[in-house]
Amino acid sequence: VYQGNGMRKSDYRRFNIDGIEPGDDYAAIRQAVSRRYEKVASGEAVAPSLVVIDGGKGQLGCALAALEELGLAHLPLLGIAKGEARKPGLEVLIFADGREPVQLPPEHPALHLLQEIRDEAHRFAITGHRAQRSKTRRTSRLEEIAGIGPKRRKALIAHFGGLQGIANAGVDQLTAVPGISRDLAETIYTALH
Fold this sequence. Notes:
By secondary structure, the chain is mostly helical. The protein has helices at 25-41, 57-69, 109-138, 150-160, 163-168, 171-175, 182-192, and strands at 2-3, 6-7, 51-54, 77-81, 92-95. It has a 3-stranded mixed β-sheet with strand order 3-4-5, with helices on one face.
């Protein structure tokens, strides 16, 4: 979100896109736009002066469809498509209202502002993706199993050498670990299979 003289980080939002085929950029944009603007549609949030989409006609069309479903097709919508060779300064501005696309000169202040907004959106998204991947790496599947706290998790890993060893173990082998009852061993076995 950009307002006045700068970014409004307090208004930034990050969405976990779910229920779509991985890599489906169009469906992801449609879902993100729907979720972002549903509060605007219900009157709980203020409508923006301009919605900027990073992408070309396809992405812009998906964003417009999402806004139309929410009754917000009147919002000004602009797409920023990569230009030739995806080189900065050659971006093409695409309008949802059907006007001809525009390519501003590389030194144009409006293009610089749009690039700054787009680059900040990329930075924010990439930071979120990295944090999510890092969290996934730090999280063990054992943490999701009821009854397995840090001590039991540590004992299981020490006994079997890691998650793969635990997953390969049978119920009887799991009960050999101190603090693991037969019921808990069955729960662990079921959760990992």
